[in-house]
Write a structure and sequence with these properties.
Length: 549
Amino acid sequence: MSANDNLYDAIIVGGGPAGLTAALYLARARYRVLVVEKDRFGGQITITHEVVNYPGVESTSGEALTETMRRQAVNFGAETLLTEVIDLRLDGDIKEVVTTRGVLRAFAVLICTGANPRRVGFKGEDEFRGRGVAYCATCDGEFFTGKELLVIGGGYASAEEAMFLTRYASKVTILVRKDSFSCARSIAEEVMQHPKISVLFNHELKSVEGTDMGITSAEIYNNKTQETFKYQAKDNDTFGVFVFAGYVPNTSLVEGKVALNEQNYIITDENHETNVPGVFAGGDVCIKTLRQVVTATADGALAAAAMEKVAAKMHDKTGLVPEVPNATRKAPEEPRASVLPADQGNGKYITDDLMPQLNAVFERMEHAVTLRVHAGDDDRSRELLADMKELSDLSDKLKLEQVSDGEYLPYVELVREDGTSTGMAFHGVPEGHEFSGFILSFYNASGHGQPIDEKLLEQIKAIDKDVNIKVLVSLSCTMCPDLVIAAQRIASLNDHVTTHIYDAGLYPDLRTKYRVMSVPCLVINDTEVSFGKKKLSELLEYLRSINAI
């Protein structure tokens, strides 16, 4: 191996829209570029079911949009790597990106590590998370049908999500810390005129209290009059709190290495270069007035143009020119399917537009997998059986079997070619946002499956005691797939682990047992309950923290 095999013109840390756009531009300009992503390419936008404001694209999902970006970049010659970056050495002409799979070198580095939803910090926020406090309207709105809701935040997200929540709630009250909304006037006016929404400007949530059944009261502070009052729902019912209060940048990798502002966003110039020569930043990790996919892609394009100049200068200065891979190859699609509508209304489980993606998965399956349907004598069981038959008829890599035993029917269990169980099952009908994860589950059960970081693989293989994982989801949940896919991946690689996914809407006794008012809900060994999305590395860390592994 040449000493320059791990030398790149540019390394991009983070595979969201900004990073993928920069990779596309750099690769098309014939520079060697690598995109390093910890868990899943696409970034935050992948959890968005419908994107309707990206110019030139009338309507698509966040996942489909970013998958197209990834393929475009790879088609031009960009390289991708799934691994975790643990350190950055940014001094000198050649920067070093330290990962769990070794040290990579580049003339320029682009930081696109994104941001995560912000916690407000009111008393009771952690205590009632998943049991009254929620952060995703599409995921959790249905659990508050007929109840009153508080929505925290005054931006675009809070306004949009408040209107969405009126589908379920009897009443929505928005608490805005300032004296006006910070979103577009047209959206603010629509909110103000909605008959089921009331808005309290200059108000903040200080605390919530309640019982095992949920939140029963809240203390609300008027920051203009300095008065507080107690909020209770009608008839002393429980109510929900939805938080949409902005984001926190993921800048821990660069703290003390590049200049940050008081909110820990990276400071850049007009070319998106930081105060460290050759180090750039783009996307939600930067200071910006509008956080949208279109601004992230613009960041990536601007940074790429400047990084080209850095790389060209370094070629002349060092005499080192990284070898650019061929750009003539067609990028394979990731083995994942699009969202399958939960109610298609045409009696067909697999639509024609899904076939190219499914065929790509079937072609990469190494062994046959049996879909063992545990069914009763009810309409839902008959629906699951018919859908699994339709799916299994598409490929000789899928077999169908029907049995009548088991709890929480109906469900489909994945069985290996040798007749042993994979430990993976879905209770209900896998559709909506869970269709993609289901397709991945039998792909992963068929052989080597999706590539994962070697360090994470070692951790999974080392699990030597039985772990029972349950994940309760909603078919409309955009935050559930990451946790579902991570939990199933662990089960596919270690027989000590079983992972069962449940459509929470079908099993009210499970919702009551685990006091579920938010999804995804993670239950470990029937005792440890937590809420919120987790990627593979985060799930493994959580399992260690509760001594489950």
